[in-house]
Design brief:
Elements lengths: L2 E8 L5 E7 L4 H11 L8 E9 L1 H11 L10 E3 L2 H9 L4 E4 L5 H8 L11 E9 L5 E10 L2 E4 L17 H9 L2 E2 L2 E2 L3 E3 L2 H9 L5 H4 L9 H18 L2
Amino acid sequence: MARGILYVMTTVVPGLVKIGKTGITNFEQRMYNLEHNGYSNVVGLKRHFAIEVDDYDEKETLLHTIFSKSQVENTELFALDINLVVQLLSSFEGNQIFPQGKPKEEVFDEATSQRDIRLIPEGEYHLERKIKRWNNRSVKGIMHIKNGRIIVKKGSVICPLKGAGFKTISIIDKKRKEAKIIDNVLQENVEFNSPSLGASFVLYGPANGWTEWKTADGKPIDIYRRDNNRGKNNAKSKEGR
């Protein structure tokens, strides 16, 4: 089994990340080159999370496949919530290389923190999508947000079949085993600390909850983060005048 390092980096473009791999002895040099020279005409790269794993070639291919719909063509750049990538990477068995001095568990918790949840108005949101591996049957998730709590509600129709690359996500397996589910219908409310984990629970596969959960008029809940960032940028523009 070839052993190497998987990493994710932020870029100067908000919401655009780089997911890549490198040899164990080459990590620092690779980071230096990317942070100083950029990648594919994108600059401002900064290391965010890195982990040393077995079968790193295979795992990188798996990551790129999972996030293929968000990939910038012919690059290792992805339009993704970096917390989603960190959740997946930190769930792999391996030695955390960066950040140093911070346990993987703490990194995972930070990636699923309440930081952005407060931007979502309290209320009910929905996730409905046909699942190919489930004979194109549809999941129908219901999420309720109140007082900073994320609840996938009783009555949600959830996929029983695990998606590709999801064998490493033990937190969702644990939630699945503990929850009361009859005929793929959730019989009780289940609480999560991020929209992405809630969506992953419903889909039983990797998911970006910020784009999967929709408002009553069909808009992804990511609009609340985008509106918040837009407001900050407008405020900065006014300050600079």
